[in-house]
Automatic annotation (TrEMBL):
Its main location: membrane. Signal peptide: none annotated. This is ABC transporter domain-containing protein. Residues 226-433 form the ABC-2 type transporter transmembrane domain.
Length: 527
């Protein structure tokens, strides 16, 4: 499709959904007021009908809306149905105005079909079954009162809490039956009704006349176009959402200034032998923890992308790559701003290559932690649990850093193999130690003794191996970042399948543990 054709479809959809007045308005978020809830509902429907689907399924499209907004949404859905599309939606307690907009009605109760047919004939069916709708009552309220067993529970609890009173008798004595009795009678009446026979006849005719049709797959945008559009949209979202990156950049700068003041011009004195590694540990520990703050924003972004991915608009690889590309400028700003402040205030090893190594190391660490937070967001049920799990993971990764104990001194099981190789902290801190201390000479503890070389300090005091250079540590960080992105891709692609498999296995185990009906009947009671 050309751009003009796409724009025409978009404009036609906006007009059809009545969104002309808010076409240029931002949707809004926690700090920016945008469109109303009714307009958001219509916008969600508009996004789905842009692809011109044959069947449109909606789950409670009027929930949370006022009567006017609900009426407008259902009126729009009726117009879509009149265009030749099939619209199926579940709805709870519609008003009488909404009820008469529907063409067909399906009433279900505990999996049983109470009624399926013309919506306008439902009132007549209930009247013929002995449960007429009062003249001034909403038909949908009457139907739910007849088939929803929760009303019996409410009535029973009310009678227990109040003194018994005389209940006025109605002209229709069948209305005093329990909901289960009313439902059973309605199910039997519907099975023997002409409406049910007509429906079954129509189904048989459709099955008899069914012919194989070749369904042509819709034209999808190219992989490159999907990547460009998603990257641009995600970048705009990050740019407009203050909480996604801007606030974190401010916090990073403030914390960097604080660390710079605490370790201002740490120098080459003997206490600096311990001061410089402490500063590095502070940077890669506390500073990197601020990346956990991006968890809520990613969860909101994932909600929108999940709906689009299950509709096969694009794949998981495009989403992962577009998310990285759109966040790249913000991560560069964050790394350069924090790295510049820390490098020149603390007075790390001078030189442009040392400065570049430090900024690149910060960029890799922040990217790794953010990717880790994305994986956590996909696996936990809410934001609070995600914050807790994410922070615990960062602390776990920091435990294997050379600041606390040399890698060779760690217990070999789990901590040395594989934790010291798969966490960012070990490689990042070791690389920054080399970047900062190799080539420097520090004052001795006793005046007059020869100066202490940085290489000797790293090897003897911190157990840092010098058989490979700092750039290999940086390359290891890039490899870990790539592996984490692959883990994110696999989580997006296989999470739902794994969840369904686990639920199926759990259900089977519960079913096997539950005694069967025949087994219960065969149990003999010994007096």
């Amino acid at each position: 499709m050309t751009n003009d054709e796409i724009n025409d479809i978009v404009e036609e959809t906006i007009i059809k959904m009545g969104l002309q007045a808010c076409a240029e308005t931002k949707i809004g978020n926690w700090h920016l007021r945008g469109i109303s809830s009714g307009e958001k509902k219509r916008l969600s429907i508009s996004i789905e009908i842009l692809t011109q689907p044959t069947v449109l399924l909606l789950d409670e499209p009027t929930s949370g809306l006022d009567s006017a907004s609900a009426f407008f949404v259902i009126q729009v859905l009726k117009c879509i149905a009149l265009d030749g599309r099939i619209v199926v939606c579940s709805i709870h307690q519609p008003s009488s105005h909404l009820f008469y907009l529907f063409d067909d009605l399906l009433l279900l109760s505990n999996g049983e079909t109470i009624y399926f047919g013309d919506a306008k004939m439902a009132v007549k069916f209930f009247a013929e079954a002995g449960f007429p709708c009062p003249s001034r009552r909403n038909p949908s309220d009457h139907f739910l009162r007849c088939i929803n067993s929760d009303f019996d529970k409410v009535a029973g609890s009310s009678l227990k809490s109040q003194a018994p009173t005389e209940i006025p008798m109605s002209s229709n004595s069948q209305m005093y039956l329990s909901t289960e009795e009313i439902k059973a009678k309605l199910v039997e009446e519907y099975r023997n009704s002409e409406i049910s026979m007509d429906i079954r006849q129509r189904v048989r005719e459709l099955a008899h006349n069914e012919q194989e049709e070749t369904v042509l797959s819709k034209d999808r945008a190219s992989w490159w176009k999907q990547l460009c559009i998603l990257s641009h949209r995600s970048f705009l979202n990050m740019l407009r959402d203050m909480g996604y990156y801007w606030l974190r950049i401010v916090f990073y700068v403030l914390v960097s200034i604080t660390v710079g003041i605490l370790y201002l011009n740490v120098g080459l004195s003997n206490p600096a032998i311990y001061g410089r590694p402490k500063c590095v540990a502070f940077i890669y520990g506390f500073l990197i923890c601020l990346s956990v703050g991006g968890l809520p924003s990613f969860i909101e972004e994932h909600k929108a992308s999940y709906r689009e991915r299950i509709s096969c608009h694009y794949g998981e690889a495009v989403f992962v790559l577009s998310n990285f590309l759109s966040s790249f400028p913000f991560l560069v700003i964050l790394s350069i701003s924090s790295g510049t402040i820390l490098h020149y205030m603390v007075q790390f090893h001078p030189g442009f290559s040392h400065y570049c190594h430090f900024c690149l190391s910060l960029f890799c660490c922040v990217s790794i932690v953010e990717t880790c937070m994305m994986v956590v967001a996909l696996l936990v049920p809410n934001v609070l649990m995600g914050m807790g799990v994410g922070t615990a993971l960062i602390v776990l990764m920091m435990m294997v850093s050379p600041v606390f104990r040399g890698v060779s001194d760690l217990p070999k099981f789990f901590w040395q193999y594989p934790m010291s190789y798969i966490t960012f902290a070990a490689w990042a801190i070791e690389g920054q130690f080399k970047n900062d201390m190799i080539g420097l000479e520090f004052d001795p503890a006793v005046p007059g003794d020869p100066k202490l070389k940085g290489e000797e300090i790293l090897l003897k005091l911190y157990g840092v191996q010098l058989n490979y250079c700092k750039w290999w540590d940086l390359a290891a960080l890039f490899c870990i970042l790539t592996c984490y992105k692959i883990v994110l891709f696999a989580t997006l692609k296989y999470k739902d399948k794994a969840s369904k498999l686990l639920h199926r296995l759990f259900a089977r185990s519960i079913f096997r543990q539950t005694p069967q009906k025949d087994d219960v009947n065969n149990i003999s009671v010994v007096p």
